[in-house]
Amino acid sequence: MTRRKACAKKAYAIVDPAPAEPLRFDADLCIGCNACVDVCQVDIMVPNPEAGLPPIVLYPGECWYDGSCVDACPEPGAISLNRLAKDRVRFKRKRTGADFYV
Amino acid sequence: MIVEWPYPVEWDQTTSVSTDVLVLGGGIAGCWAAIAAARRGADVVLVEKGATIRSGAGGSGCDHWESAATNPCSRITPEELTDALITSQGGYCNGISHYVECREGYDRLLDLERMGGKIRDADDEFRGAEFRDEATKLLFAYDYVNRFTLRVWGTTFKPALHEECKRLGVRILDRTMATSLLSKDGRQGEPEGGRQGGLQGSRVVGATAVHTRTGRFLVIDAKATILCMSRPSRLWLFSPELPGISEFRPPQCNGDGHSMAWRAGAEFTMMEKSVQAEWSGTRSFPPYATGNTHNTWYACSMVDAEGREIPWADRDGNILTTVSERYRPAPGQRLYLKGGCEPDLPTYEFQGPDILPVDELLAQGYKLPLYADLPSMPEHERRAIWGLMVGEEGKTKIPVLQRYSAAGFDPDEDLLQSYGEGWRSAAFHPQERQLFGYPGGLMNDWSLRTNLEGLYAAGDQLFASNCHGHAATTGHYAGRHAADDAQSTAAAAVENGQAEAERSRVYSLLDGDSDASWKEMNATLAEVMQEHCGAAKSEELLSSGLSKLQDLRQNKAPRLRARNPHELMRCLEVLNVLTNAELVIHACLARKASAEHLHFRRSDCPEMDPPEWQKFVTVRLENGTVIEGEMPLDYYGPLPESYEAHNEEYVGESGS
Predict the structure, then answer these.
(1) Domain boundaries, chain A
(2) Who among A43, A47, A102 is closest to B50 (CB)?
């Protein structure tokens, strides 16, 4: 109790060292509007302290990959959902048999 | 990398809020509850941990709406369909909530349409399709003969509901986590601390909450409260590295509402039911992201590695020769439920067509892997799967449709590989369990009220809950009844002592004596559950699991420490997960018999379904002690008569 009172106004975060990078930003396209931060129900991002820059993904491991952030982005391409490597899926062109991964 | 907290820190501040109807949880059920209560003239506060515009399991989309039995094309009555659902679960089903779903689903769809949601093919994209009704332009899924499941444009739903809440003046408190229910007599048992006792079972008069960005505390008094906070998860399956995809639903839908209700003395049933896991993003591919034949992908053709077409069969094993037959009941069958047979325990009476089991395919010389063969599907069916359904389901619009299309996947040309049987896309161990497929929850009466006065429940908080349409209809229904209750109830004063005790409990997590993480705690308790509450259960095993959980509570929980309001939310969540684990074990201890439809096997009571145990077993807390009870499986009485007796006004308004 005493300790909390002493630092009542302080809080900090350590970026979660998750083995995942669920979101990628294109800093040239991103306008720093934070629409993605506002829509994320898991609240994995925080606004960048520097206005106009892409948000900081504080809790990447908590992403549930529904893509609402991408859907809400007003600047197509500014944010993209990056699937885990283990979730890459193979498809095959029916006529040629050629392999692809996505 | 250390980041300074970007939001104002307000954990020395408390806000008091007063309302008629308090809705906890802003997913599908919560939004509908708020809308219904507000339309009845109630003042409504909606508390949502995330952001209401897209929050909840159905927030980002929904590809099909089940059990809309009153739509103009349906060839089945709400009574027949509810009976089918109850029978398919061996009687362990919520007759009340599913009758509401069957009876009011189409009313809610029309409501959604008025709010701007898209429920019919107004643009004539599917003109002439077998699953389209040309007069109404409604599109159907699965059983095309009986036409009670609709294909819908569910990505439009949540923003429309959010907008309607705002239009009606609902006070939406986003980024706010409810932490406890407030009881009229001011005290509850305190399972988190050493001290037990109190007055569980009193009227619920509101809730406490904490802001997940600022840490500000809230005390909300309400004449009626509706719990719409999903169902427990992360009990057996938890990944500390990737907690966001530990289970099917969003990670913050972890059953806070169950824990709060349990602590307040609410009565639960069927919490002993768990199924071998079907979804976990860390153990399987994401939902509907690989070639499969179920739900969103029903009834996609498959081929084997050499391009041989995989046979489809009806419930009797008769091979189906056309795609169209996959959407029809078998000869002599009244209807079938679901797209793809019920994965947990198919009931012959309602089992739909599916591909032959993999073992049989291998015995017949088919070669793995299998592929979804969209190119061979008739054009309307291909576009209904790849485009409409994959485009409208919440977890596939961006991650699958958009992403695969950008990578060059062409539904007219390409085969998508399958990585598992049917829809599972992974193999799970028997002890890796989930609350899925009509799991347990709060016991309810015909008002969707719990055993506690002033406390209602909807959606996945109800026992034997399932799917979007169930959440929407029960939310609306609970909202109406809670608003009526509030109208006839005087505001109850919240005793400061209870709110103050809760405030201390919440903020004690800022003072933990170490940096013990919520993730380690969750991973540990999930292991305890796998070891002690797996597929085969027994009195002694369950009891030792309970004492191990209590050890975690006494020795690990006090060491949890949050660095900021976000972590405070996660720490509070994991304490709720722990409470829910205890609730599950108490329920397992209460049922001293094995039960097939509950996927419940007691090695010390091996006889399956002895007649004296074919009943609902209930559990609740009273003065800190678990009270066991029972209810007959048909406690809800005759469906239409009971429904109409409790909903005279609604039946009059809607003419249904």
Answers:
(1) 2-84
(2) A43
pLDDT tens digits, B9-53: 999 899 999 999 999 999 999 999 999 999 999 999 999 999 999
> CA-to-CA distance for B166 and B173, rounded, in angstroms?
11
Q: How far is B96 from chain A (nearest CA, A)?
A: 31
Confidence of residue B111 (pLDDT cuts 50, 70, 90): very high
Per-residue pLDDT band at B490 (split at 50, 70, 90): confident
Topology of domain B10-59+158-283+435-656, CATH = FAD/NAD(P)-binding domain (3.50.50)
The tokens describing B336, both together, are 């079938």
* DSSP H stretches of helix in B416-564: 467-487, 496-507, 518-532, 539-551
How is residue A45 written in tokens?
Answer: 């991002």
Chain A residues whose CB is inside 8 A of the B9 CB are 8-11
Domain ranges of chain B: 10-59+158-283+435-656, 295-417
pLDDT in tens, B179-230: 999 998 766 655 444 333 346 888 999 999 999 999 999 999 999 999 999 9
Cβ contacts from A onto B, under 8 A:
173
Residue of B nearest to A49 (CA): B6
**What is the CATH code of the structural domain delimited by A2-84?**
3.30.70.20
Tokens 């209700």 -> residue: B261
B617: which 2 tokens? 């077993």
ipTM of predicted assembly, 2 dp: 0.94
CB atoms within 10 A of CB B340: 23
DSSP annotation of B295? G
Which among A3, A20, A87 has the least Cβ separation from residue B511? A3
